[in-house]
Amino acid sequence: MAVALVVTVATAAAVTARTLWLGSRRRLGERGGGGAASAVLAALPEFLTASVLAAVVGVHLGWLPALGWYGPRWTLLPALALGLPAGALLGRMLDDTLPGAFAEPWAPAAAARGVPARSVARQALRRCVPGLLPNLGLFAVGLTGGAVAVEQIFDIPGLGRTTLQAAIAQDLPVLQAGTLALVLLAAVAAALARLTARLLIGPALRDNALRSLHRPTRPAPRTTPLLYGAVLIGVIACGLARDPLVLDTGARLQPPSWTHPFGTDALGRDVLARIGHGAFGTLALAVAISAAALLTGVLLGLLPRLSGPLVDTVNAVPPVLAGLLTAGVAGSGPATPALAVAAVAWAPLAAHTTALLEQERATTHVTATKALGADRFHLLRRALLPAVLPPVTRHALLRLPSVALALTALGFLGLGTRPPDPEWGLLLAENQPYVERAPWAVLAPAAVLALLGALAVTAAGGVRLPRPRTPAAVRRPKPATATTLGKTG
C-alpha cells in the first residue's frame, strides 16, 4: 500500500503540475481545458492495467517480476496498477480547486510583492489540500482492501484478497479479523486526515477568516464533451443494430474488419454488438448509482456528526466484499453489483461535502450573514449549498467512470451477471485469456471505458457552447428634430 500511495501522490502531482506553474505566475488564462490523458488513465480498469503490465513489462520485456511477492521489486507493478488510476482521479479533483485558490486576494498580492512563484504554488496547495484529505484517506483504505483483482492477477497475499477468500470459504474468524483491520485502518486514516487538515488551515478555521474557493470565472466555451458523448452514443447505437448472441465458430478471434469493426471474441461473436447491448448494464446503472450516491452523499455530508463514523465504516468495506455480502443476502444476479456499489459509492462524496462544509462555515461572509440575523435555512440555501454543491457535483462526475469500473470489476470476478450476458466486466473477463492473441477483444471495451472517463472529466469542467457572434448593430444618426421657431413681428 505504501508504494501504491507514493505512485498515487506522484501521479496527482504530474496532473496538477501545469496548473500550479501557470497559476503561480498569474497565467491561468493559458490553462485551457485539458485533462484527456488523466481521464483515460483514471478510467482504465485496474485489473486490465495489471494484466497489461504483467504481460508486457513482466513477461515479454522481463524488466520486472510479474508474479509472487519476494521483495521490493515485486511491489512495483502492482503499485503502478493501483496508483495510476487513483492518482489521476485525485489529481483531477485537486486541479479543479486550484484556480479558486489562485483567485483569492493573497495570490495577486504575493505576486505584486515579488514572492517567488514556488512559494505561491506551495501556499495554493496548502489552501486546497485540506478539502481533499478525507478522500486521500479513503484512497488509502481503498488501495488496501479494494485491490482484490490486482492481488489475484499478481498472486500477492494482500489483505483484501485474504478477506475475500475468507468470505468465500465462510472462514468467520479470518473474515472478522480482516474486516476489523479494514475498519481500524479507515478510522485511523480519517483521524489523521482531519488532524492534518486543521494543521494546514491553521487559525483561519478557528477564527472564521477563510474565503470560499469558488471558481474565479465561468468555464470557457467548449464542445469537447459533446464530441466525446456523440462518439460514445454512436458506438452504442452501431452495436445495438447487431445481434450480440450470434455464434460463428469459423470467425473466432478475427481482427477488426468492415464486417466486424471491433473484431470477434473466442466464440465468434461480434464485439461491437456486445459492447452496444452491454451499455445499459454498465453505463445506465453507473449513471443511476452516481446520481443516487450524489444525493445521499450531500444529505449525509451536511450532517457530519451522524455521517462521520458511518463514512469511516462504509469506506472500510471494498466493493468486492460488499458484493459478496450482497450475494449472500440477496443472491447472485444482475442486481448484485448495483446494490453492492450503491452501498459504498456515496462515502467519498459525503466526506468531500463534510470537508467543504467545515471550511465554508469558517468563511467571513457566512460569519457576516449570521451577524445580520440569518437563520440556518437561509444560510444553507444561500451560502452553504451554493459553495458545496458545484465541486461535489463535479466530484460525482469524476467518479462516474469509477462506478462503472466497480461494476465491471464485480462482473470480472464473477459476482454479477452470467454468460452469455454482454455486461462489460464479463466481456473483459471472458476475453482476458486471449489478450495476447486477440488484444482487440479486450482493448475495445477498455477504450469505451476510457472514452467515458474523458467525457466525465471534460463535462465536469463545464459545458458551454460558444454563442454565435452577431455583428454589432450599426448605429445610425438620429434624424434631427425640426424645431419651429415662432416668428416675431
From TrEMBL:
Q: Which Pfam families match?
A: BPD_transp_1
Q: Do you know which InterPro entries this protein is assigned to?
A: BP-dependent_transpt_permease, MetI-like, MetI-like_sf
Task: Name the UniProt key words of this record, in alphabetical order.
Answer: Cell membrane, Membrane, Transmembrane, Transmembrane helix, Transport
Predominant place of localization: membrane
What are the subcellular locations of this protein?
A: Cell membrane
Checking Gene3D superfamilies in the record gives: MetI-like
Q: Which spans are transmembrane here? A: 41-64, 76-94, 180-205, 279-303, 396-418, 438-460
Q: Does the keyword Glycosyltransferase apply?
A: no
* Region (Disordered), start-end ranges: 468-489
One record GO biological process: transmembrane transport
Choose one Gene Ontology CC annotation of this protein and give it: plasma membrane
List the membrane topology term(s).
Answer: Multi-pass membrane protein
Similarity field: Belongs to the binding-protein-dependent transport system permease family.
What's the protein called, per UniProt?
ABC transporter permease subunit
State the organism of origin.
Answer: Streptomyces phyllanthi
